Amino acid sequence: MTEYDVDFLISLIDEERPVLWDTSNEDYKNKFIKQDAWKDVCKSLFPNFEEKENNEKTKLARIFLCFVSSCRHENAIQRKSEARSTFETVSRPRYDDVRDVTLT
Hints:
The longest helix has 36 residues, at 54-89. The protein has helices at residues 6-15, 31-45, 54-89, 95-99. It has one domain (6-89). The protein is mainly α. The protein is globular and about 50 Å long.
């Protein structure tokens, strides 16, 4: 698989086919509509996708879906890392600060 422009990939999935990611979309749970959407993405990415044999189409689709899965995994790791660093920078009262407070 060749290198692709990330913005182009995002536009193919995010902007043009919300059925692939938007859980509030009424067709999100319809696997046939989602399968058609993924085929459309593959048609946009791979030249002559329609003319290829079924086994070749399946191979290309699996490679692409592995790529998408890998991107999602990396994104999740990055979000966790950012959340962890944000959590660590929030100042929290320590026991020493709290014990000096007297209740009246």
